[in-house]
């Protein structure tokens, strides 16, 4: 019943910007935290950003703080990740995910139970 579908990935130059979108169904935003994660080949899954279900507070991983912004649109059932000042190190598959919990800021992958298929972001020099 819960589905998440990412879109908006692509190839960009360093210093550029990109906005990722995640269409969410079967989830009440106020009851679930939602997050963005990324995984590069040979690397562990890294928490990028999360937005708390109640109140919409946000948290970010240290490597992206100040450059990425997570937001949501309840009317459109969408979660977004705005990526700015992109670096080559940001190259990865980006996933949106749903947590069964709503009251915390979760940047660890095991706190999430539903995942999208991922969208590739490639940053070149």
Number of helices: 0
Q: Could you tell me how far the N terminus lies from the C terminus, measured between alpha carbons in angstroms?
A: 41 Å
Count all strands and give the number. Answer: 11
> Residue-averaged pLDDT, rounded?
95
Assembly status: single chain
Low-confidence stretches: none
Task: Give an overview of the whole structure.
By secondary structure, the protein is mainly beta. The protein contains no helices and eleven strands. Helices cover 0% and strands 47% of the residues. Strands 2, 4, 5, 6, 9, 10 and 11 form a seven-stranded mixed beta sheet that branches. Strand 4 and strand 5 form a beta hairpin. The mean pLDDT is 95.
Keywords:
mainly beta, four-stranded antiparallel beta sheet, seven-stranded mixed beta sheet, 125 residues, single chain
How does the SSE layout of this entry go?
Blueprint: E1 3-7, E2 10-13, E3 18-25, E4 34-39, E5 46-51, E6 58-60, E7 68-73, E8 78-83, E9 92-98, E10 114-115, E11 119-124
Parallel strand pairs: 2-11
Antiparallel strand pairs: 1-3, 3-8, 4-5, 4-9, 5-6, 7-8, 9-10, 9-11
Q: What is this entry, summarized?
A:
The chain is mostly beta strands.
